[in-house]
Amino acid sequence: MEAPFLGLSLVLVLLAAGWGNGAGAAWATSPGGCRLVQSTATCNGRWLNSVPRNLQDEIEELLLDDNTIQVLGNASVLAYQKLRHLSLSKNRLELIEPGAFLGSQGLRVLSLADNLLFTNYSVTAAALSALPALRKLDLAGNRLTEDMVSVLLWNLSSLESLSVARNIIMRLDSSTFTNLIQLLELNLEKNYIFEIDQAFEGLQRLQRLNMAYNYIPCIAEFDLTQLRVLNVSNNAIEWFLALESDDLFELEVLDLSHNQLLFFPVLPRQSKLHSLLLKDNEMSFYQHLANATSLANVTVQFLLIDGNSTNVTTVSLWDEICHSNLSSLRLLDMSQNQVWYLPEEFLAKMPSLTRLKLNQNCLEMFHLPEGDALAMLTDLDLSQNHLSELRVDLSVRGVLPSLQLFNLSTNRLQVLPARFFTYTRKITTVDLSHNRVDLCPQQAVAGKVANPPCVDIRGITTLTRLSLAGCGLQGLGSHPFRGTSLTHLDLSDNQEALSGGLGWLQDLTLTLQVLSLRNTNFSSTVVDIDFSGFQSLICLDLSGNSLTIFPASLGILKLHTLDLRDNCLPALPQDVIWTPLGKSLHEVYLSRNPYNCCMLGWWDSLQQVEGLHIRDGQEVTCSYASRTVSARALPEPILQGCRWRTADLALLYLVLALPTCLTLLVAFAIIFLTLKQKLLKMVKSQCGVSSPY
């Protein structure tokens, strides 16, 4: 009985030897259940109530997350002299004794997130002060107030990265982060901060500051010149005012999204800003507030209250914006605001702009600036506005020469400027969905002198993706896509788009890969619906139509994705899995069709096809005797009923055929007996044989 135990001991000795010299097995399991991989010990989720003491003394990283440790006692990690990274997140840690980190002078990363350190924070502060090499500290989710944070951080001048997110900090002042002279990154998100009073003046090296999800009402006299990234999204900010200074700000990213900004922020005059995020505010421009045609003398007064003193500052907001150097700005997101126009020269100040998002505003007209103002722009989103006009000076050559993606969906457009796309030489994606536009050429209509305006995309060789969903397309002429190489086309929600068949798509048979015909009134009675020519098609959406029969022409296609939801199909072909379609399909959508529970042989076959995913398989139902049940698990009574129906049908055929056969047999017998003598004489006369009588 001792041999197995001896073998186990030998294995453990060999593993230990391999760990010590860096050779042998790449990982091992310690007696405490921790996994050892090179110099990292992972003990997460082991229900440990203390630090294991039987691990290899050479470990540099110890992960003890999601355990039940309440106290980190003196000399808890004394055995691990080379420890550089210790994580104790998601424990029940209430106390770290002053001598807990004896022998861990080289500890650089310490995570204490999601614990209960508020209970004995002053004692814990003494333990943290014994870590001279600590560079990164995570105190998130410990119910800490600003006073507790100040005590915990008092002697941590070596810190470069600090997180006190998800605590109950309400106010920041100059005493909160005293002595953190090396700090580069500070995370304060998801607290209750509503006031900041010179809290960051001593953080001369701070580069990244995250104060998202707080209650900050405004930011005035922003003067952190060394800061590179500032995230103050999801607050209650109404004003952002940078310090009036010609000093160069290192600011590269400013996130003011999801606030209550009333106007465009007053930015530093000189900065390196390349990303400005202003999404979801209440921002607008304010010429109409002054009831004037010129903003030269329009000013706004700010009331600044500091303790018992009140100052009124008068500034010309638009002049300040004009003086801001935005030449390095590459991303501007002003979506979900109340912008109904852009001031003149606004975009001309941003020659490096590559992405402009103005969707979900109140724009009624958009004027593309002249010259090279947007020469670098690749992505322009004007969707979900009230646009009825897109104005451009076509005398200027090369309008939006770098534009690749243009989203104009959900507006009131009926036409685009003539020859507009001939100037966008790199355009690949256009979304015109949910506008009342038609494509050129239009089908001639008797009685009409002239056709209404249309959008001409013919000859745009770079265009590969086009959405025309919900445009009310009808009466399209021949070859509207001639000269294009579309691979993705969305025609969904056009009730009359297929009234004349698919002939007007003939120029796309070689290139089209993704086609959406959702909710296009497509039915099995529509003539000239033949998909066999679209041999490059890999994704087809036919959902929301009135198909009663599976289109036979689909069988020869090699689709990867097919959507047949919300149709009127009672069944699919039994041999669909043997067709090129059945062999190429990767995913299919089949729900919300009135399938017959007694005709599910195709369903069983599809479920056995290797590599085919029925994405909505749980939702596929069938009907039996006015009942709707899941096709995945038919009740036994329904299965028996289907078998009886099949048997009854065979018996019915037999009953119907038997009388007919008997009738024919009797009739033949009567005819034969009646004409027997005549038939015999006729045979004899033909054969020329005399009777023996």
Description:
The chain has 693 residues and is α/β, with parallel strands linked by helices. The protein has a 25-stranded mixed β-sheet, with no helix packed on it. Strands 37-39-40 form a three-stranded mixed β-sheet, with no helix packed on it. A hairpin with a 2-residue loop joins strand 2 (35-37) and strand 3. The longest helix has 39 residues, at 636-674. The protein is flat, with a radius of gyration of 39 Å. It starts with a helix and ends in a 6-residue tail after the last helix.
Report the span from N to C terminus: 113 Å
**Beta-strand residue fraction:** 15-25%
Largest sheet: 25 strands, mixed
Query: What is the count of helical runs?
Result: 9
**Could you tell me the mean pLDDT?**
86
The count of β-strands is 40
Structural class: alpha/beta
Unreliable sequence segments: 1-27
The geometry reads as: flat
Helical content class: 10-25%
Give me the Rg, rounded. 39 Å
Transmembrane segments: 650-675
Keywords: Leucine-rich repeat, Membrane, Repeat, Signal, Transmembrane, Transmembrane helix
Organism: Apteryx owenii (Little spotted kiwi)
Protein name: Negative regulator of reactive oxygen species
Structure described in brief:
This protein is of the alpha/beta class.
Observed structural traits:
40 strands; 9 helices; 25-stranded mixed sheet; three-stranded mixed sheet; alpha/beta; 693 residues
Strands, helices and their partners?
Elements: H1 3-21, E1 27-29, E2 35-37, E3 40-42, E4 61-63, E5 71-72, E6 85-87, E7 95-96, E8 109-111, H2 121-128, E9 136-138, H3 146-152, E10 161-163, E11 171-173, E12 185-187, E13 195-197, E14 208-210, E15 218-222, E16 229-231, E17 239-242, E18 248-249, E19 253-255, E20 270-271, E21 275-277, H4 287-290, E22 300-306, E23 309-315, H5 317-323, E24 331-333, E25 355-357, E26 365-367, E27 379-381, E28 389-391, E29 405-407, E30 429-431, E31 465-467, E32 488-490, E33 514-516, E34 539-541, E35 561-563, H6 580-584, E36 587-589, E37 595-596, H7 601-607, E38 613-614, E39 621-624, E40 627-630, H8 636-674, H9 676-687
Parallel strand pairs: 3-4, 4-6, 5-7, 6-8, 8-9, 9-10, 10-12, 11-13, 12-14, 14-16, 15-17, 16-19, 18-20, 19-21, 21-24, 24-25, 25-27, 26-28, 27-29, 29-30, 30-31, 31-32, 32-33, 33-34, 34-35, 35-36, 36-38, 37-39
Antiparallel strand pairs: 1-2, 2-3, 22-23, 39-40
